[in-house]
C-alpha cells in the first residue's frame, strides 16, 4: 500500500524548480541587473519562468525561483549563468551566495507567467456516465505521457465551474506553442482516451500582455 501511494505521489513531469538564495549590496543596481539576467535567461533552452524575490525586512536578501523544462536544462543553464560574460554584471551584484537547490515540480507543472506567454482555455463537460475521478485520471495520464513532453509546455490546470462544466487551462511559452501543442493531440493514445470521456464546448487561445 505504501509503495502504491508513493507511486501516485511521484511527479509526472520532468520540470525542475531552481531556488537560489543570496545577498546583494546595492539594491537599485542589483534590481536592474537581475532584470537583464532574467531576460537573457529566457533565451536559454528549457527556460520556464523566473520569479525574483526580495527579503521582506532586508532588501539585500534575495531569492530567485526559476523553472526549467528538465534537470538537464537546469544544469546547463546553471553553468552558463555561472560563467558566461553575458551574466557577469549580474554575478558582480552578489556579495554573498547562500545556495542553489533543485526540486521536482508537481505533476501538472508550474507556470510562472510573463509577457508573451501563451494560454489555452478548453471548456468541456463530462459525457453521460463518466465520473470526475475517471476524467481526472485520464487528464493526468495525458499530461504525463504526452503534453508535458512537448517543447514550450509550462503547466496545466483543471478548473471546475459552478455549472458543472470544466475548463482545462494550459500554459506555454507563447501563443504559437499553445496552438502547436493543442494540434499535437491528434492521434495520441493518451489524448484520445481523455477526449473519449468529454464533450468539448469551446476552445480559445491567448497570450499574457
List the main descriptive attributes of the protein structure presented here.
209 residues, alpha+beta, Alpha-Beta Plaits, 2 domains, four-stranded antiparallel β-sheet, 8 strands, 33% strand, elongated, disordered N terminus
Structure description:
The chain is 34% helix and 33% strand. The chain has 209 residues and is an alpha+beta fold. The chain folds into 2 domains: 16-104, 2-Layer Sandwich (Alpha-Beta Plaits); 118-207, Alpha-Beta Plaits, CATH 3.30.70.100. It has a 4-stranded antiparallel β-sheet with strand order 2-3-1-4. A 4-stranded antiparallel β-sheet has the order 6-7-5-8. It is elongated. The model is unreliable at 1-11 (pLDDT under 50).
CATH A-level architecture of the largest domain: 2-Layer Sandwich
Number of strands: 8
Radius of gyration: 20 Å
Assess the beta-strand content as a share of residues. 25-35%
| Secondary-structure content class | alpha+beta
Helix percentage: 25-40%
The CATH class name of the largest domain reads Alpha Beta
Q: How many helices in DSSP terms?
A: 7
Total number of distinct structural domains: 2
Order of helices and strands: HEHEEHHEEHEEHHE
Q: Quote the CATH topology of the largest domain.
A: Alpha-Beta Plaits
What oligomeric state is this?
single chain
